[in-house]
Amino acid sequence: MSKTPRALSEEADLRSRLDHVTLSRKEGFVRFANAPRRIRPELLSRRQLKKLPEEALAEYNRARRKWHANLGPLDTWQMQALHEDLWDIFDSNDQDGDKVKGGIALDAFPGLRTRCATTRRARGHLDARKFS
User: What does the H/E/C string look like for the chain?
Assistant: First the structure.
């Protein structure tokens, strides 16, 4: 059973809207790598918070919630060791296109942020322009 033109159009529209969150595709990674860094909201004292108008306080609280919901990985000694190992592998992959390159496989329990650790490292150190 073939899809209707409308169903195909909706599917293509959904794919294009979700492309920026799909890091497994070149376009999604380029958008991720080129996205501006999130700016931390200014830390206000209780006295400053009490002086804010209701609408400004709501906006401030929304910005703080968004900041805390998107914290990156913490720079622990384990993360530093992983990044050092990743650089050793990246640096050794300077072969011509006809040579086999080394790969990276991370294995960990769910929730230990392996994907986050690798994508953050790639975002910070790969030239995203070469992917476009």
Answer: CCCCHHHHHHHHHHHHHHHHHCCCCHHHHHHHHHCCCCCCCCCCCHHHHHHCCHHHHHHHHHHHHHHHHCCCCCCCHHHHHHHHHHHHHHHHCCCCCCCCCCCCCCCCCCCCCHHHHHHHHHHHHCCHHHHC
List CB contacts of 93: < 8 A, sequence separation 6 or more. 101, 102
Pick from 36, 10, 9: nearest CA to 123: 36
pLDDT tens per residue across span 68-123: 988 777 778 888 888 888 878 777 777 777 777 777 777 878 777 777 777 776 67
Residue 57: what residue type?
L
Question: Distance between CA atoms of 61 and 57, rounded to whole angstroms?
Answer: 6
